[in-house]
Amino acid sequence: MPSVPASARQPEAVRRVLGMTRLSARPIYGDLRTSSEGATVVDMAASAGPGAGAIVATVSLETLIARHVPWWIAERYAVRLTDASGRMLVEKARVEPLDPRQRHEISFDPPLRGLMLSIAPYRVASEFSSRMLVAAIVGLALLAVLSLVVLQRHVARRRRIEQRLASETVFRRAMEDSLTIGMRARDHEGRILYVNAAFARMVGHPVEALTGLRPPMPYWTHDRLAETMARHAELARSAPMPQSFETRFRRPDGSEFDVLVYEAPLIDATGVHRGWMGSIIDITDRKAAAEFARAQAESLARTGRLVTLGEMASTLAHELNQPLAAIASYAAGSINMLSAERGDREPVLTALRKLSQQADRAGQIIRRIQDFVRKREPRFSLMRLDAVIEDTVAFVADDLRNLGVRIVTVVAPDLPPVVADRILIEQLLINLIRNGAEAMAPMPAAARILEVRAGRESGEVAITVADAGPGIDAEVAPRLFDAFVSTKAEGMGMGLNICRSIVELHRGRLVHRPGTGGGTVFTVTLPLPQEALPA
Question: In this structure, are 336 and 277 located in the same domain?
Answer without folding.
Answer: no
